[in-house]
Fold:
Amino acid sequence: MPVDVKFGVFELKRRIPEQDCDLMGVIKTNKPIAYSDCRFTGYYNPLACVYARATHQHQESTLQKGFLAILRSILGSLRDLAPIILVIGFFQLVVLQQPIPDLINLLVGVFCVLLGLTFFIFGLEMGLFPLGESMAHAFARKGSAAWLIAFAFALGFGTTIAEPALIAVAAEAAQVAAEGGMIAATDEAQESYADGLRYTVAFSVGLAIVIGVFRIIAGWSIQWMIIGGYILVVIMTALAPQEIIGIAYDSGGVTTSTITVPLVTALGVGLASSIKGRNPMIDGFGLIAFASLTPMIFVMLYGMVI
Structure:
């Protein structure tokens, strides 16, 4: 039958099975007991079990570690932002010799940027990097190349289509194209042009990740593939309309931003770590290079077609 169990000056609020206790009412199981399950009794039992106290101390230790981790992230973000703040402050106060406009709002904005950068990096380390690596390990263990390729393409396409930088560049490019007479100066035409640009870039990044995954699996040399890709970029530059070349080159940069880079990097490193004979340092990196290269080719092709 269930019995009452005492923990020194604490007593368990709930009752546990008799087989989990000895004759003195002391727990002999290794099952963890939450501190919240205990209540204060006011007396001390020298034979009491210490599981409740140890669990409480573990919970406190976990909270302290989490707080220290966030504090270290904030200090790291402040260190990263310090050069930008110093450069702007130097040129504003020393070179231009002008007071900083709207100082209060500026400080609030810097504080928001600091918090945003801190939690973004903290989230990457806590969620996206482990997620990408674990999925790469899982696909490698599954042994299905088809599913791995499908996942690589979907990951590249999905992360790129959601990139805020690409959305902004595509909208700006559509507006400039309308002003330059390349497309009709209507909202529908500009939206269609921007969407076409985004989907073209997203497709090219998805294809780039697939090529990168093939390279990791086969052990191909990355330098010759990159050299060949940039030779193709030079050829496309000579053939594409002048108006699209700058957009194409910028598209190669905006794709490797806040959403794409963490997941794609984690995928490459995790996959290289899971395949026998592959070195994560040599084979795991390089997917971002492909993701920067292929959009330039495809956007110039997009400009030639439209």
About this structure: Confidence is low (pLDDT under 50) at residues 1-16, 18-60. The beta strands are 6-7, 10-12, 38-40. The first helix runs from residue 51 to 95. DSSP finds ten helices and three strands in the chain.
